[in-house]
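Handoff note, outgoing to incoming analyst
You'll be picking up this chain. Sequence as last confirmed:
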Amino acid sequence: MLDQACSGWAVLYSLSRRRFFAFCAWPSPWPVIVSDDTTDGLEQRMREAETLLILHMPPVEGRLGRAA
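Most recent structure output, in case you need it:
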């Protein structure tokens, strides 16, 4: 359910580790994998990773357009 609510992520559960893992499915300069023991914790880690990625992305000319 979590992967449906959070598009752009592939969510898996490891039976051997008893832990949830999320892998980003969007283009990224480096692999993004987060994990947590609970789905609530995993969702928080996913949001943190998204925020950090946005903050560290280099600006791309023309991405947002220009003010006139």
